[in-house]
Structures are given as C-alpha cells and as structure tokens.
Protein 1
Amino acid sequence: MKRHFDRDSLLRSIGLIEPGDLVTYHGSIPELHGLWLAIPCLCRLCTHADEMGLPVLRYHLIDPWEELSGPHHVRPESITRSAAS
Ligand SMILES: [Zn+2]
C-alpha cells in the first residue's frame, strides 16, 4: 500500500495543532477569546498561499458545541492547544 503523506500527518510530524483539536484563542479579537475547535483554514486565500509554497498555516475556528463558524485565517501563535483536549 502506498504511504499516504497528507497535510494532517505533516502537522502531526512537526508537533503543531492537529485538525479537530480543542484550542484556546488568545489572538487580536478579544470578543472571540475562549475555547474553539481548530481546523485548517481552507478558504481560497489560504489554499492559494499554500499552493504557492508560502509557509502559511492558518486555522479556521468553530464552536465545539454549536458548531458555529468562528474566525478564519487564525495564526498558530494566536491559539494554544487546550489542556482539556
Ligand atoms: Zn483562510
């Protein structure tokens, strides 16, 4: 079987936040500080930067309970993996 090397395993190998991790947001928008589920931002802007080879790793945050959509393009520095996850 061919080894599948996708973005998820890449994230794991470099020890960053994995898609679906519970994180605490402490970035530039105080109203949004709190717990979120982090998934990779797959908007056109971020996907395009990725395809261009730019080291852009941004997250899209969703509400873990109501699955409401939160902020997009969140930088890794703005979130910390939650101890509760
Ligand atoms: Zn984005």
Protein 2
Amino acid sequence: MMAFNPFLFNTHDLPRRPGEMREYFLEIDDHDPMGFDVISIPDYEPIDIELKLESVSDGILVTAAIQAEAVGECTRCLDPVEFSIDESFQELFEYEVDYRQQPKKKKGEPADDGLEETADEVKQMVGEMIDLEPSVRDAIILNLPINPLCDPDCPGLCPDCGIKWTLLPEEHAHVAADIRWAGLEGWKSPEA
Ligand SMILES: [Zn+2]
Ligand SMILES: [Zn+2]
C-alpha cells in the first residue's frame, strides 16, 4: 500500500455557492494495481478521470467518467486478455459537519435517528479534500469480468497435455495412449 493517496482531490478552486461548477481532467498514473488476480489495472496503466464538481447547498456533487485499460489472462487458455473500463459515477460529498453547531438533541427523541445509515451512504469531505478512491475502485472492480476470456468461445486447454485446443488437431485425444499403456500392464521400463 502506498501512503500517498493519488485519488485525493482538492476542491479549493470551486466557489462554495450552489450552482457553481468546475471541470477537470485527471490522469492518475501513480496508483496501486486495481482489480483481481486474473485481471486488473496494472500500476503502469493510467486511470483517466473526467471530473465535474458542482456546488450544492450541503456539499459537492461529483460526476466522474473513468477510463482505464485492464490486463489479465484468459481463465480457460491463459492467453493475455485486455479489457477497457469506461464507467461513470455520481456521488455527493457533504461538507464536514461541525458537531458543535449541531442543535442539541431534545430529550425524549428516539436515539436511533438513522444517522448511522446516512453516514455509510453519503461521503464526507475532509476539509476541502474529496477522496475519489472508493468510488473509482468500485467503478472499476464491479465492472471487471470475474472470469475473463480471450474469446467467449475459447475452447481452453486439453486437460491431459495442457496444450491449447486451437493448436491441436481435431482428432487429438489421449484415450488411445491410455489403452496402449493398459495393454503394457506389468511391463517395466529397463531404466526403472
Ligand atoms: Zn482463451
Ligand atoms: Zn492433449
């Protein structure tokens, strides 16, 4: 893990007046690999983000379009596989709540006011910073194929010799060899 988070974005340039808007283009090329063992955005592939920030009354509405190239291997034949990510998300980042300014809870009000649930769903800014990492990670990971294939019809490998079916003759089989060995039962190699 890197200590530096390349997905932290400083929103200082956006005026805090509802209706204000700013657009940015980020090319993030110093990130950790993102994905699974079989397919991921490697650390040498940039993650491009078209970012739109809009001031709303209680925070910043973030709209992002993400483009990146994943590389992996076919889960049937192990050939290299490339996969393009082209996804977008929209998320509200609320201004940091100053709890000292929150009205005190009246006596008799139920303790469970749903705040915990909201805290999970709505993201919070930290000062002027927004952390795009969790949303970018979701947009990538939820859209990567779990079983990447070089071709939907990839026939894979012969389970006996591990050679690709596409390279083997149509009549390729190991059954004949197995029968021959069965016929030699009891026979020992001179070297054994
Ligand atoms: Zn394949
Ligand atoms: Zn074979």
